Amino acid sequence: MIIAFEGIDGAGKNTLVTALEAELLARELPVARVSFPRYEDSVHAQLAQRALTGQMGDLIDSIHGMATLFALDRAEVAEQLEDLDADGYIVLMDRFVASNAAYSAARLAEEATGGAEPLEPAQHPVVEWVRSLEVDDLGSPVPDLQVLVDASAEVAGERAKSREQQDAARTRDAYESDGGLQQRTLEAYHSLASAEWLGPWQVVASEAGGVSERASQLADRIEGEYRELEH
């Protein structure tokens, strides 16, 4: 069972995934965990990181170029993810294909000009392009569930700033420090979730209750669906 956690930078994805992992392990369920981009393991992710920190010239200006680097990072482990799924693991992923769709649609929305009615983000051609590239061409598996960790751009931005101040290694990159991009990306995520892009979604309010409570509620759903798949 493959579950992808999505949300803007600072939304609380890592915190929720960590709590959920602990809850599922306490229930004696097999869990594997992957975070994207894999900056420490993937040359494609490393090139994207260098672009985001101004070290790759005008590469960052190419929306499709950046999306391709992130897609190739996932493609490197696509087979391993499918193997883990086939072996009965619950695979928890911090970001996956939808992040590419949301950020790409948000960046193109910024470039849109003219008097035409803006497209709903989930209907933007780049969203289908991302799906075709990642799923059809590169073989990334389709998640069984996508969880949107929903936090306002303002709250997420303050968390990202605080994280940066506490850890010099967590300096915000060009995407993370762009408040307008984060807001548009959040809107794109809501559009994808409403359209049930790639399959079922669950929206979890980042500020609703404690993280342990949210993790327990998610674990109930995941365990139920996991048990059904066993039979």
Describe the protein:
The chain is of the alpha/beta class and 231 residues long. It has one domain (2-36, 80-230): Rossmann fold, CATH 3.40.50. Helices cover 54% and strands 11% of the residues. It has nine helices and five strands, in the order E-H-E-H-H-H-E-H-H-E-H-H-E-H. The chain has helices spanning 13-26, 43-52, 63-75, 78-86, 97-111, 125-137, 153-166, 179-194, 211-230, and strands at residues 2-6, 31-35, 90-94, 145-150, 201-205. Strands 2-3-1-4-5 form a five-stranded parallel beta sheet, with helices on both faces. The radius of gyration is 17 Å and the shape is globular. The two termini are 14 Å apart. The mean pLDDT is 93.
Strand element count: 5
Largest sheet: 5 strands, parallel
CATH topology: Rossmann fold
Count of the domains: 1
Which geometry do the CA atoms define? globular
The helical percent reads: 40-55%
CATH homology group: P-loop containing nucleotide triphosphate hydrolases
- Give the class from helix and strand content and strand pairing: alpha/beta
